[in-house]
Amino acid sequence: MERITPDFRTGIVRGTATLRRPADELVSVGARPRVRLPSPPERVTITPLWLRARDLVVDRLPLTGPDGRRACAMLRAVLRALMPLALASISAGCGVTLVASPSPQLVLPTFTPTAEIAPTVTDLPPATATFAPTGTPAPTETAAPTVTPQPTASPTALPTVTASPIPTPDHTPTAIVQLTPIQSITHDTIGQVLTLEGNVVETASFSAGFKYTLDDGTARIALLMWHSVFDDCWDIARINRGARVRVTGQVTEYEGQLEIQPRFGSQVKAIRPAPDGPAQREIGSLTGADAGDLVTIQGEVLRTEGLPAAVKVFVADDSGQILVFIWRNVLDRIVDNAGLGTPGSEVRIVGRLQIYRSNLELVPTLPHDVTVLAVP
Questions:
Q1: Domain 182-272: what homologous superfamily?
Q2: pLDDT value at position 248?
């Protein structure tokens, strides 16, 4: 028997071995993965690292019967000794499992075949009886812990807080407004900004604005409101004849008459709103003797005639009809003024009665003197 040395660096096992037996059969494993069993055999040469069962070729020596089993046993011993780092399998009717061996040098065993050897059956270890698992005893119920009541703290009474009375002032102070009597306003005060109060006793309109005559009991002065100031005044609907007004503005003069002109609508406030207008009269009851009076009528619109600077609205009731003359600056600021151009609209008008070319006319001076009650 010769030594066989594996090469651990390359994983290749090379070497030869001589087997002794009467027939001296030779088992040879070449560089290619094939195994041949010539007759008569003398030596075994091992080169490859892996052997596969399908690469095993037998020449004249079948791998069945006693000789085949002896050849398989010999190959099993050889490969088991020469495969220290690999696992392989040879299956040619007998099945061989290779187990790696860490020994660097191994000796092939001597093996002498006999004419007829019965297959050796390895006794299996006796079966070990498997016992049924022992039942795990049920856990013993643990009594719930007893809760020890905590001592209850006695509430401590909070001290009573007595509210101290808040001192109430005897009266709420009111901002004092320095009012200037109209009587004291003269040409020497022109250009000054003053505040005054007065009752509205007369109203008028002109192309650029509206004019109110104020009387505080000492004298009269004209309140001039340009269109921008008029449209900016929140209290303008409450300011008419009979209203009391407070105004702050600059003293001016026009054609020898003193005026006060506010710059903003907020500088004009209604201290007391205007009362209702004069009592309503039938249109047929109005005559020339009423010229100059302030009257109130109510009726339906018959027709409308337009002029460059004004509009004529003919209004009638069951007693008669009358012409209502409305300037454009007044017409533009009447609420729902489109109803004045619709025949059959119900309107109520407060105005000054005048005679023009022998005909009676009613002239409203402020936009709020005309109210459109209904439009068909």
A1: Nucleic acid-binding proteins (2.40.50.140)
A2: 97
